[in-house]
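Q: Structure tokens for this one, please.
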Amino acid sequence: MAEVKIAADSGGGSVGLVGPASTTGNAAVQLKLPVADGSANQHLKTDGSGNLGWVTPGDNPNSSLSVTYQTSNISGDTNYDLVLPTNCYQVNFEGWNLSTSGSGNPGFYVGTNTGNTSVLSSGQYKYSSIKFGNSSAGSNNFGGENAIYFGDYLGSAAGDTYWTTAKFSRCGDTDSWSFDILTTEYESNVLQQVYGFVDTTDPLVRIRLTPIGSAWDSGEFRWEAWSTV
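A: Here is the predicted structure, written as tokens:
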């Protein structure tokens, strides 16, 4: 039996690593350790080629948090694309101080290829929107929009400022995605919720944050994407 034995620092016992009785096809298997220790509660994961690394478990025990992006300034940008990892199944977004330089409502496009983000037709976005607070509440159903408007019930003037959270979730093994978005306009005491799904048979490649009809005046946000890879 092949064994690598490491004695304890104080000499009180040892720790051993034992090889299997045989490897698949009697291959010489080599595992390469990561260059540094991981964070608390992380575990080792192989890339299938013998390279080990630390990962943080996601909601799915067989998945990992594969992408985390953060930006602090989108002033002057007309769009920002959240490029999704392969086999992505969930995206969480949080944005604050989102403000447009001209009139318009902030929103999302989703894309199924790298060449054109807004490739989905109006019939593929299906969602409802409801407003809470202020002088009156309202609701609306959207079945033919060409984007997801998450500030539709709120102010649409230049300089209006929003805080928003959004969650996009892949529906099982299909390529349709559900979403739930909450948005508040600063100092307005109004909350808008948008929920629905994106009806597509192709995998999503990116989600575009866009100041529809305008450009961004300010904004900070972070987003995380989970993947089974």
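A few notes: Residues 59-63 have pLDDT under 50 and may be disordered. The longest strand covers residues 88-100.
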